[in-house]
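Below is a filled-in request sheet from our internal design queue. Each sheet records the structural input a requester submitted and the sequence that came back. We keep these sheets so that new team members can see what a complete request looks like end to end.

REQUESTER: design group, bay 2
PRIORITY: normal
MODE: inverse folding
CHAIN LENGTH: 431
BACKBONE (tokenized):
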């Protein structure tokens, strides 16, 4: 068998690997290398002939890990199936990946190890672990590792309790061994750049995302309206800008209780006077999926109007749409008819709405994103309520909100996507 080189672990990762227990919980800050560590754990175990169950909040997060492991273990792979996300090795080892969107994930299987990534994002994880995952470990007295970044202080969260409970009880008989590793524990990162993050994000965001602390978001809005304004007012449209674009959030169904179709229009400013990113306009409507194709041309017309108003050097660079549900249909139709539509990068869709909000809060806190006076003053009627729905949704968004599923947040997600597409992510438009 050809040589196989697994990713070298840095000192913080090696400490975790050396101290793994029967039940281990990893409370990890961003960019520490949590998922990469879990990959190496799975690879080492499979090369020893062990069977691994690797669990994720959804398949979108599982797929890049599958590709990475296949690439690393290629000389030892007996068979692999990218549809079932299963890898069998010539050693007898096996790695099988599951989405915890399926409450029965792992049933009928047995494993030496169960690894759960992004555990804080999995709803009802305790039930899924106890009923589906833990039984897979009985045959071989296997190990379980759950890993994630904190998301509020939810005492009903299995991840939160696994980290915080240090004494056994009748209701919690097994104490999990915890490793708490903030971002600064990664020696491969520039320590000055890591230290600078404290001034680039709201204090609670920094504590949660980078120090891996459990913080309470009760009654706390992630986005403050003054950060989006200048002296209490919106800004003027740019006299000149690089380009204009739109971010679109689409609904699958209509009706008073369901999501609407939102669009936010942006100006990107790299060389001119003014803010790097300006919200020019927004709109929200209830449109059934079969009528959304007819709705899209109005967005392109508005983009052309805004391009002329802001004298965009590169004109309109199109609509950015999430590549799922009815958004997928619009992207496919756009490709056929020649629309200027783009799928929002998968790394941004995969982190979930709370993850997007956390990342978007940094540029807003830094003053790099502003509302135009037009977007700030605008009011429309939506679901029989007349107000500025963009301002309302963005400034009321709170991480860990248990009632979030009841709230309209279509424009908020358009806003998060716009900030990230332009300023963050792996390939930002403005750099």
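RETURNED SEQUENCE:
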């Amino acid at each position: 068998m050809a040589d196989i080189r697994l990713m070298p672990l840095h000192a913080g990762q090696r400490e975790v690997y050396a101290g793994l227990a029967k039940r281990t919980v990893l409370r990890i800050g961003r960019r520490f290398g949590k998922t990469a560590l879990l990959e190496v754990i799975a690879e080492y175990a499979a090369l020893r002939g062990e069977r691994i169950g690797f669990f994720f909040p959804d398949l979108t997060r599982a797929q890049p890990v599958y590709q990475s492991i296949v690439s690393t273990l290629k000389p030892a792979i007996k068979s692999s199936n990218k549809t079932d996300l299963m890898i069998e090795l010539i050693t007898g080892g096996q790695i099988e990946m599951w989405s915890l969107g399926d409450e029965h994930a792992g049933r009928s299987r047995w494993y030496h190890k169960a690894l759960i990534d992004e555990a804080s994002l999995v709803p009802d994880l305790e039930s899924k672990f106890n009923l589906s995952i833990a039984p897979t470990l009985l045959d071989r007295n296997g190990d379980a590792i759950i890993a994630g970044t904190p998301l509020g202080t939810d005492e009903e969260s299995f991840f939160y309790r696994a980290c915080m409970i240090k004494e056994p009880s009748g209701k919690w008989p097994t104490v999990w061994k915890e490793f708490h590793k903030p971002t600064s524990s990664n020696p491969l990162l520039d320590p000055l750049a890591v230290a600078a993050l404290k001034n680039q994000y709201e204090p609670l965001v920094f504590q949660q995302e980078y120090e891996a602390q459990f913080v309470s978001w009760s009654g706390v809005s992630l986005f403050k309206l003054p950060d989006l304004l200048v002296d209490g007012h919106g800004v003027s449209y740019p006299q000149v800008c690089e380009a204009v674009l739109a971010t679109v959030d689409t609904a699958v169904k209509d009706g008073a209780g369901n999501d609407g179709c939102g669009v936010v229009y942006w100006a990107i400013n790299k060389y001119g006077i003014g803010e790097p990113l300006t919200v020019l306009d927004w709109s929200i409507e209830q449109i059934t999926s079969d009528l959304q194709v007819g709705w899209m041309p109005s967005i392109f017309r508005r983009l052309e109007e805004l391009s002329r108003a802001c004298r965009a050097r590169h004109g309109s660079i199109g609509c950015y749409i999430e590549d799922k549900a009815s958004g997928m249909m619009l992207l496919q139709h756009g490709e056929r008819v020649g629309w200027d539509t783009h799928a929002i990068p998968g790394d941004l869709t995969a982190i979930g709405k709370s993850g997007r909000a956390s990342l978007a809060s940094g540029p807003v806190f830094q003053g790099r994103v502003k509302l135009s006076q037009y977007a700030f003053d605008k009011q429309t009627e939506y679901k029989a309520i007349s107000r500025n729905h963009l301002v309302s949704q963005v400034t009321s968004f709170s991480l860990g909100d248990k009632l979030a599923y009841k709230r309209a947040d279509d424009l908020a997600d358009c806003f998060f996507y716009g900030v990230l597409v332009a300023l963050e992510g792996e390939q930002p438009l403005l750099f």
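SHEET NOTES:
- Residues 74 and 202 are 43 Å apart (CA to CA).
- Residues 253-258 have pLDDT under 50 and may be disordered.
FILED BY: M.R.
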